[in-house]
Design brief:
Order of helices and strands: HHHHHHHHEHEEHEE
Distance between the termini: 74 Å
Number of domains: 2
Helix content: 55-70%
Largest sheet: 5 strands, mixed
Shape: rod-shaped
Structural class: alpha+beta
Strand order of the largest sheet: 1-2-3-5-4
Number of strands: 5
């Protein structure tokens, strides 16, 4: 802080009180010593005024105030002296440690201690009487004690500032964790919503387009039946998801996550939805141990199959759609293949969010996934989704 900065109001108050107290003592004829070199009573007002002026700098320029204050206190010893001058010096010493630089805060207590010891030994050797010890005690009270007090207050202040910074940092980290948790939860909700509803909406879009474009009552009736079934199923799943999201919702029953045991029903529904598109959906499970797996693995595998069947309904050419489960030990393999190419009839547009969701699910489990066209053994092109999911531990209760 610049020494020319405006003094703090507390410093001004201390200076005014010190100067006023010294004037009262001077008017009352009270002084600390007699028989000095400058014995005129009014001379003691000069050190008093200078020390009061240094009080104005105790916060903005503590080291300057201490140096000038020390010289002023020495000069005061050649006058009749004033108790107010000595008391203001102790405050300047305290302020120099409290508001000064860290180096000054470490150096001043050591210096004042050495000065106190040196003064005590010097006067004791000079006077050779026990009363000389009183001079050392007074020196310690005026210099060393205020310095030690300043160190204690400064340490407490620094500790409080450190605690405040640590609390701010903790709050910032907590806010970052909360934001990351919210983002992760939003991503999870987006994946669940897409995987649960996209299949039904895709079937509705394709069959409604077929019903509008083909002028055949039987075809329209079949399409409307599929549309109605998928609308009812999609609405039920939406209500279940909304019930989970609504705080304090009326439906407090637990919602079971889909498992691999539900794949038969999922494949059957997909086959019914895609029959009019010329797709034949089948499921093959070649796992050595078809027992239950950890819930996150089963949910991810179920959603991967569900999204792959939805994509096949949107884009696959007529032909077989094969769902295969395999793997052994600590690895589960999920593979879905369909004929790659264009097909006649209505198609539902895709956004690419399904593939993103599958990759996110596999990444969360530390697995791998590949999706794209590959060549089959007979030279035809097929679209293949293949995911490998690590299984760290088998689910209990087999």
């Amino acid at each position: 802080m610049s020494p020319f900065a405006r003094p703090h109001r507390h410093d001004v108050l201390i200076a005014v009180i010190g100067l006023s107290g010294g004037l009262v003592l001077w008017l009352a004829g009270l002084h600390t010593q007699n028989g000095r070199l400058l014995d005129a009573h009014w001379v003691a007002l000069v050190p008093l005024a200078v020390m009061a002026g240094m009080e104005l700098l105790r916060r903005s320029a503590p080291q300057t105030a201490l140096v000038v204050g020390t010289l002023t206190l020495v000069a005061d010893q050649f006058t009749t002296g004033s108790l107010a001058t000595v008391l203001m010096f102790t405050d300047i010493m305290y302020a120099a440690v409290l508001y000064g630089t860290p180096a000054a805060a470490r150096r001043i207590p050591v210096t004042t201690f050495l000065v106190t010891v040196a003064v005590t030994i010097g006067f004791l050797a000079w006077f050779r009487t026990a009363e000389a010890l009183l001079i050392g005690v007074v020196t310690g009270l005026v210099s060393f004690c205020p310095a030690i007090t300043g160190v204690s207050v400064r340490n407490h202040r620094d500790a409080a500032e450190t605690a405040r910074l640590r609390a701010d940092q903790t709050a910032l980290l907590a806010e970052m964790d909360r934001a990351q948790a919210v983002t992760a939860e939003r991503s999870r909700m987006a994946r669940e919503l897409h995987d649960m509803v996209a299949n039904h909406l895709s079937a509705i879009a394709i069959h409604s387009t077929a019903a509008l474009s083909i002028d055949d009552p039987d075809t329209s009736r079949d399409a409307l039946g599929v549309i109605r079934q998928n609308s009812v199923d999609g609405l039920a799943e939406m209500r279940r998801l909304i019930g989970l999201l609504r705080a304090g919702g009326g439906d407090t029953r637990p919602s079971a996550a889909p498992t691999l045991a539900s794949l038969d029903a999922l494949v059957g529904q997909a086959g019914a939805n895609s029959a009019s598109s010329g797709l034949a959906v089948g499921l093959t499970d070649t796992r050595e141990d078809p027992g239950p797996l950890p819930a996150p693995v089963e949910l991810a595998a179920y959603r991967i199959v569900q999204e792959s069947l939805t994509n096949a309904l949107k884009h696959a050419a007529p032909g077989p759609v094969a769902v295969r489960l395999g793997g052994s030990g600590n690895l589960l393999t999920v593979e879905v293949t369909s004929v790659f190419g264009s097909r006649p009839g209505p198609r539902a547009p895709g956004s690419g969010a399904g593939l993103v969701g599958m990759r996110e699910r596999v990444a969360l489990l530390g697995g791998t996934i590949e999706a794209g066209p590959v060549s089959a053994g007979d030279g035809t092109k097929i679209w293949q989704v293949r995911a490998e999911l690590p299984v760290e531990e088998r689910a209990s209760g087999k």
